[in-house]
Amino acid sequence: MSMEQNPTIGLVDDDAGMLRALSRLLRTHGYAVRTFDSPDRFLVEYAQADMRCVVLDVSMPGCDGLQLQAYLNKTNRSIPIIFLSGEGNIPISVRAMKAGAVTFLVKPVDEEVLLEAIALALEQDRSNRGQREEMDALRGRLEKLTTREREVLEHVISGKPNKLIADILGVTIQTVKIHRMQITRKLEIPSVAGLVSAATRLGVVPAV
After folding, report:
1. C-alpha angle 131-137-46 in degrees, rounded to nearest 5
2. In CATH, what number does 144-202 get?
3. pLDDT tens digits, one per residue of 54-78
4. Which of 50, 112, 151, 188 is deepest in the core (most CB within 10 A)?
5. Which neighbouring-strand residues pair with 35?
6. Are 58 and 81 in contact (CB under 8 A)?
7. Are 42 and 10 in contact (CB under 8 A)?
8. Residue 91: φ, ψ to 5°
9. Confidence at 2, pLDDT banded by 50, 70, 90
10. Would you say 71 and 26 are in contact if contact means Cβ atoms under 8 Å apart?
11. Residue 171 burial (CB < 10 Å; 0-12/13-18/19+)?
């Protein structure tokens, strides 16, 4: 079991018997479970259900598992996916893995193998959430910069020295130094390399 108590696992399969069997297995091992008989039903509840991973059948009527995966990727609604398939289709499994699936398992799936895959998916989810929280915090710190500090940052990450930045902005070198100190304090990043890395992640464009 993960560090989090009773994480919620989504199960998506048009086979009612499979949903019951997997739901029983996961609940026995302490997981909360949400079941869906189609990708469309999953999407209706996905945003509110706070599921930590989804066990997803590949072949279903209408929107299949790969289409659901593509939609989630396109809309940046990241969730670790474990695919299940009634047959070992190598091209489909390759597509699923290239698109970010945790793993691709063939039915009937071994219980221990599935539980190990879920543990891996939950670890991936924790990592993803940690990265998103880090980015949200960094984005919040960036928003604390004044307009002039943002201008100085854009010049700093382009590699310009203080004197050139001062000349471009029409201020003194000392003023540029003060702005840089404020940028470092507000962003909590002491090095230029760190500023460049953070700016790249946030989409800040270096000044020309």
Report:
1. 55
2. 1.10.10.10
3. 999 998 877 888 999 998 888 877 7
4. 151
5. 11
6. no
7. yes
8. -60, -40
9. very low
10. no
11. middle
8 Å CB contact between 43 and 12? no
Burial 37-75 (b: 16+ CB within 10 A, else e): bbbeebbeebeeeebbbbbbbbebeeebbbebbeebeee
Q: Report d(CA 152, CA 145) in Å as an integer.
A: 10
**How do beta strands 32-36 and 8-12 pair?**
parallel
* pLDDT attached to residue 49: 81
The two tokens of residue 83 are 């695919």
Q: What is the pLDDT of residues 112-145, one digit of tens each?
A: 999 999 999 999 999 988 988 999 999 999 999 9
One CATH from 3.30.70.3550, 3.40.50.2300, 3.40.50.300, 3.40.50.80 for 8-138: 3.40.50.2300
Residue that has been written with the tokens 């003023």 in this structure: 175
First to last CA, the chain: 51
Q: Is the dihedral of CA 38, 36, 55, 3 positive or negative?
A: positive
- To the question of pTM greater than 0.85 for the whole model, the response is no
181 Cβ contact partners less than 8 Å away, ≥ 6 residues apart = none
What does the domain layout of the chain look like in residue ranges? Answer: 8-138, 144-202
Six-digit token string for 187: 């962003």
